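=== How it folds ===
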Amino acid sequence: MSRLSGRIALVTGASRGIGAAVAKRFAAEGAHLVLVARTVGGLEETDDAIQKISGQSATLVPMDLRDYDKIDQLGHALYERFGKLDVVVGNAGALEALGPVAQYDPKLWSRVMDLNVTANYRLIRSMDPLLRASGTGRAIFVTSAAAKAPQHYWMPYGASKAALEMIVKTYAMEVAGSSVRVNLIDPGVVATKLRTQAFPGEDPKKITQPDQVTERFVELAEAGCTKHGELVLAQ
């Protein structure tokens, strides 16, 4: 038996990078994937890879997570189709730009906070009943070392990840008496588009690739996972 056999897993930011890598690994472990991202072409590429891996198609959901009403609509649609959700991976995130606090563009600030913080809160709000219905619901949210200590020019991203950690840890406390297990994961330094934005001169081939950090995601998504309210390092 594969480790995620028969489990229904929603992955945000699944069109590329860590989200796509996690989706493909979950498919290899037997899960049915619900893939969310803005880029239709990227979602279709991930789905093509999943079909080659498992012989099954994913459920594709092209949407901008900043359109919060659509998150609620997705939750309702998943209830109508599956009646439950076994795994949520809140991976989608934005950097937008680096810059000093006093000069940071308010519009970019809003975009970072809207996606990295509010969209994940809305995801929890909409998917919580489905995770509870699973009996072995698992929620995994991607954070960053940027949440831990101030760094020049990283204020919006760092603040958003610190806020996300507070939301997720609080949610974990509140569902501690249920069958739902909730954790954070820090993938570390990984070759992603966000990383390239921040470090354009870096050779992505010389750092960890997205498919190299998927094992911890599988561990946290398994029905037998006992970790709860923890921050897990992927490497």
User: Anything to note?
Assistant: Helices lie at 17-28, 40-54, 68-81, 106-134, 155-174, 193-198, 214-221. The mean pLDDT is 98. The chain has one domain: 8-233. The radius of gyration is 17 Å.
